[in-house]
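Exercise 7. Given the encoded structure of a 258-residue chain, write a plausible sequence.
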């Protein structure tokens, strides 16, 4: 017997951190198309508002902007006061808009670590802490955190970034064991290289750059910002109620899951 389903998020509310561009923007788009009411979070009020305006023209769901620096616990709490509880949380914030410098660990200094750890791990802790309690009370919730193959494989010159993303994955697994009995699932989606920000700029400047960079990928291209969106919409839906504590890659086969 085959169970038919569609990804229907009608009546659900969602918060997507870093929703003002790139992968976050495409996640917001997928949620609105599935009928959800989406809070588009960004550190830039202009970016958040621009995405919300664009998505409100799509329907059937709707979008609202919310500015907050999710590395600040106080600003996260103010954001929670503005949005109220949500059904779905996507911890998407990660690499800064301008990217980061690839650097040997021994050449870094402790002062270099803090911002990377705070952005890629600390924000996940603080935003999840602000919203998951309401999901537990409601008896339904979805948390999806975007991590990187740098956390699963290990990448040269990305030691702090990869370890922060690995910490976020460990947090998700542990949280999943605590809240599953309350109808709340917690998962991670691990991404390979996505054409956004400086990487997209590099490809635009050199058409051969993508071919060189994608040689290790069984699917011979780099990712597009919309590649993970359908999976994340599925994980946010009722159809994924028995998927929790997992790290699922969307990476063209770069690091295959067992």
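Solution.
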């Amino acid at each position: 017997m085959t169970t038919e389903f569609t990804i229907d998020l009608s009546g659900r509310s969602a918060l997507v951190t870093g929703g003002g561009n790139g992968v976050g923007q495409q996640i917001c788009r997928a949620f609105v198309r599935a009928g959800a009411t989406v809070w588009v979070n960004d550190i830039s009020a202009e970016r958040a508002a621009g995405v919300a305006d664009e998505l409100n023209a799509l329907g059937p769901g709707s979008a609202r902007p919310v500015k907050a620096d999710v590395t600040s616990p106080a600003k996260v709490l103010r954001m929670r006061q503005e949005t109220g509880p949500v059904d779905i949380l996507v911890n998407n914030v990660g690499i800064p808009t301008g990217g980061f410098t690839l650097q040997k660990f021994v050449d870094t200094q402790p002062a270099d670590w803090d911002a990377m750890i705070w952005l890629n791990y600390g924000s996940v802790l603080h935003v999840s802490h602000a919203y998951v309690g309401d999901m537990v009370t409601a008896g339904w919730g979805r948390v999806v955190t975007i991590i990187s193959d740098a956390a699963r494989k290990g990448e040269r010159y990305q030691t702090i970034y990869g370890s922060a993303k690995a910490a976020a994955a460990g947090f998700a697994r542990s949280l999943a064991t605590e809240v599953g009995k309350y109808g709340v699932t917690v998962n991670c989606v691990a991404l390979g290289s996505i054409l956004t920000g400086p990487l997209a700029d590099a490809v635009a400047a050199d058409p051969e750059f993508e071919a060189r960079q994608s040689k290790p990928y069984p699917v011979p291209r780099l990712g597009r910002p919309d590649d993970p969106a359908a999976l994340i919409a599925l994980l946010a839906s009722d159809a994924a109620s028995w998927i929790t504590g997992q790290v699922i890659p969307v990476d063209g086969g770069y690091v295959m899951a067992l």
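Remark. The domain at 13-250 is CATH 3.40.50.720 (Rossmann fold). Students should compare their own answers with the one above.
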